[in-house]
Write a structure and sequence with these properties.
Distance between the termini: 39 Å
CATH architecture: 3-Layer(aba) Sandwich
Number of strands: 8
CATH superfamily: Gcn5-related N-acetyltransferase (GNAT)
Strand order of the largest sheet: 1-2-3-4-5
Number of domains: 1
Low-confidence stretches: 173-177
Largest sheet: 5 strands, antiparallel
Length: 177
């Protein structure tokens, strides 16, 4: 499955994307706000890729491999929706991670909007959440720009400020006449 946006190609990650996944998720700069830190070996990247592919097979959604339409063979990030347990229950979570070379171009915003539409409209999910560290100003701006609103906080990193939880709800029409 390939989904396109104005500038992006979003596709189900394939085995050929493993090197890009490891390069992006193993980069300390891209993992600066991830309490788990960067991946330390290719085996971790393979396990992550296998899980993403399983989610696509079982659920029909998950993380996409992201490329520019102009450079379709060069994966520059990963992102999409998937289940993530927090606030006491599994929640549909929007996440993304881009190579440093892709930062500052509005690509996370474009991907995030596509993921919300894909989940809320095409899959009719009632809500999609975003979890972000409070010092990650760029990611907070992206989530707010695509219409997500602050929902709460989560004490998920011992000894540090609580993460912010943002939420987008499916459009509710008033059909009451």
């Amino acid at each position: 499955m390939i989904l396109t946006t104005r500038r992006l190609l979003l596709s189900i990650p394939q085995s050929a994307d493993l090197a890009a996944l490891y390069a992006i998720y193993g980069d300390p700069a891209t993992q600066r706000f991830n309490p788990a830190g960067p991946l330390t070996d290719i085996t971790q990247a393979k396990e992550l890729l296998d899980e993403w592919q399983r989610q696509w097979r079982v659920l029909g959604y998950g993380q996409w491999a992201v490329a520019l339409k102009a450079e379709p063979d060069r994966v520059l990030g990963f992102g999409g929706i998937g289940m993530w347990p927090y606030l006491g229950e599994p929640r549909m979570n929007l996440g993304y991670r881009f190579a440093q070379s892709a930062w500052g171009q509005g690509l996370a915003t474009e991907l995030g909007q596509a993921a919300l539409t894909f989940g809320l409209v095409e899959h009719q999910l009632p809500a999609i959440f975003g979890l972000v560290r409070p010092e990650h100003a760029a990611s907070i701006r992206v989530l707010e720009k695509i219409g997500m609103q602050r929902f709460g906080t989560l004490d998920d990193v011992p000894g540090q400020a609580h993460s912010l939880v943002l939420r987008a709800l499916a459009f509710q029409s008033d059909s009451g006449g």
